[in-house]
Design a protein that fits this description.
With about 325 residues, the protein is an alpha/beta fold. The chain has a domain of about 200 residues: Vaccinia Virus protein VP39 (Rossmann fold), CATH 3.40.50.150. About 25% of the residues lie in helices and about 15% in strands. It is built from 9 helices and 10 strands. The strands form 3 sheets. It has a 6-stranded mixed sheet with strand order 2-1-3-4-6-5. It has a two-stranded antiparallel sheet with strand order 7-8. Helix 1 packs across helix 9 and helix 2 crosses helix 7. The longest helix has 15 residues. It is globular, with a radius of gyration of 20 Å. It starts with a strand and ends with a strand. About 0% of the residues have low confidence.
C-alpha cells in the first residue's frame, strides 16, 4: 500500500493515474484551498475533504505530489512576478517546510509539476533554491519538460516535472516510454458536420476577427490570435472564450466553435464517467457554457503523463515489503 499526500491537489490527477494503473494506494490527505476543486475531488473519489491551506500542514506520506500555483511562472502572464517575495511561486517553498517539519521522516518520492516558465531567468532562482534545499534534505532531484502529446494525448501541454528520490539514485527520464499521439478527432463530442449547441459557436465579432485564418497578419498592439485545431489542441487553460485559448474547431458550414467542457476533460486524461460526476456536482445551465468545468480541467495535470511517471517509479525504483514502501537499494 502506497501512502500519498497531494498538496495543491486540484482535481486529483495523481490519484486518477494510480487508479488507472491499478496500484493499491491510500491518499492520507489532500490539501487544496479552492472550494470548487475540493468539491470536484470529493465527488470523483468519494471523500469529504474541506478547503484548507497548504501552510501549516504536517503528514508522513511515501509519495508527496505538489503542483504549486503557476500564474506567476507562466509566460502567458505578462505581469508575472516570477521569484518575487509576494509571488505565488513562493508557495512551492511551503513543501520544503512541510518536509522539514516531518522530523526524521522523509517521503521517499517527491514530485513537483509546473509550467515551462519556471526555467526562465526571472523564475529560475526560486527553482534552483528548491533544488538546493531538497538536496540538503537528502534528495537527489532531476527534472524534464514533458509534453502530453508524447503520451498519446493530442494536447500541446508542456510542463516541467521534477522528481526527487530520497537517496543517491536519480530518476532517469530516459526510462519513460512515449506513445504515438492520438488524433484530436478521437476526443471530440461533435464532428464538423454535426449540429453543435449554440453556446459553443463563435459569434462575437471581436473573437471572429482574431481567427488566424481570417486575419493571418494582425496589426495594432493586440496581436494574439485564435488557432484552428488540426491534429491537436493547444494548452487548455481555465477559459475557452478568450484569446489565445486552446484552439477552435472549424465546422463545415463554415463556422467555428469552442472546445466543449467534456472535450477538455478528455484532453486532460479523465474519463467520461468522471465528467458525468462533475455534471452532477456542477450542473450546466441550459444554453450556457460551464465556466467551472472549464476551470477545473485547465488547472489539472494530464493524467497520462503522471501515469507513466508512476509506472517507471514502480518498475524501477519502488519496492513494497510488508505493506511498507521503500526505494530499491
Amino acid at each position: 500500500l502506497i501512502k500519498v499526500l497531494e498538496l495543491f491537489g486540484g482535481i486529483g490527477a495523481p490519484r486518477k493515474a494510480l487508479i488507472k494503473l491499478g496500484v493499491s494506494h491510500k491518499c492520507i490527505d489532500y490539501v487544496e484551498w479552492q472550494v470548487n476543486r475540493v468539491k470536484a475531488y470529493n465527488a470523483l473519489y468519494d471523500h469529504l475533504h474541506h478547503p484548507q491551506d497548504v501552510r501549516g500542514w504536517n503528514l508522513k506520506p511515501d509519495i508527496l505530489v505538489h503542483g504549486s500555483p503557476c500564474q506567476d511562472n507562466s509566460r502567458a502572464n505578462k505581469q508575472r512576478k516570477g521569484a518575487a517575495n509576494d509571488s505565488r511561486s513562493q508557495l512551492m517553498l511551503e513543501t520544503l517546510r512541510i518536509i522539514k517539519e516531518m522530523g526524521t521522516w522523509r517521503p521517499r518520492v517527491v514530485i513537483w509539476e509546473n509550467v515551462e516558465g519556471v526555467l526562465d531567468k526571472n523564475v529560475m532562482p526560486i527553482f534552483n533554491y528548491y533544488l538546493q534545499e531538497m538536496k540538503s534534505l537528502g534528495y537527489t532531484s532531476s527534472y524534464e519538460v514533458l509534453d502530453a502529446r508524447d503520451f498519446g494525448i493530442p494536447h500541446a501541454r508542456k510542463r516541467v516535472f521534477c522528481i526527487s528520490l530520497y537517496d543517491d539514485k536519480m530518476f532517469d527520464f530516459n526510462k519513460i516510454q512515449k506513445k504515438p499521439m492520438k488524433h484530436i478527432k478521437e476526443f471530440l463530442e461533435f464532428s464538423p458536420n454535426d449540429m453543435v449547441p449554440a453556446q459553443y459557436l463563435i459569434t462575437i465579432p471581436s473573437m471572429l476577427n482574431k481567427i488566424k485564418e481570417f486575419n493571418p497578419k494582425p496589426t495594432g498592439s493586440y496581436k494574439r490570435q485564435l488557432d484552428v485545431i488540426d491534429e491537436y489542441c493547444y494548452t487548455i487553460t481555465e477559459r475557452q472564450d478568450r484569446c489565445p485559448n486552446a484552439g477552435i474547431i472549424r465546422l463545415s458550414n463554415p463556422q467555428y466553435r469552442y472546445l466543449t467542457e467534456r472535450e477538455c476533460w478528455r484532453l486532460l486524461g479523465f474519463d467520461d464517467e468522471d465528467y458525468d460526476l462533475m455534471l452532477k456536482e456542477f450542473p450546466t445551465k441550459e444554453g450556457k457554457r460551464n465556466a467551472t468545468l472549464y476551470a477545473l480541467a485547465g488547472n489539472s495535470i494530464v493524467v497520462d503523463v503522471l501515469e507513466e511517471i508512476f509506472r517507471v517509479l514502480l518498475d524501477e525504483y519502488i519496492v513494497i515489503n510488508d505493506s511498507k514502501m521503500e526505494l530499491v537499494s
